[in-house]
Design a protein that fits this description.
The chain has about 70 residues and is of the alpha+beta class. Helices cover about 25% and strands about 10% of the residues. A hairpin with a 5-residue loop joins strand 1 and strand 2. It has a two-stranded antiparallel ribbon with strand order 1-2. It has a single domain, classed as Transferase(Phosphotransferase) domain 1 (Transferase(Phosphotransferase), domain 1, Orthogonal Bundle), CATH 1.10.510.10.
């Protein structure tokens, strides 16, 4: 699964410091038949370069967005 909209508003912390991910409305399943996506989905300030360029992307785009989220903290 790829979330495709990782940002601070979609990451929640529980009282026990557990991490929860919310807003799975634009998430997509990655399968052998469809390993990459190429749609422009997500919040502009957290998008990975390959998503903005419109080239096929996969789970590393979520890692990029998570890195941007960490820079915000």
């Amino acid at each position: 699964m790829i979330h495709r909209d990782v940002k601070a508003a979609n990451v929640l912390l529980s009282r026990e410091f557990g991490v929860l991910v919310s807003d799975l409305g634009v998430s997509a399943e990655v399968t052998r038949e469809r390993a990459c996506r190429n749609t422009l989905v997500g919040s502009p300030l957290w998008l990975a370069p390959e998503v903005v360029k419109g080239v096929p992307y996969s789970t590393p785009s979520d890692i990029w967005s998570f890195g941007i989220l960490l820079c915000e903290v």
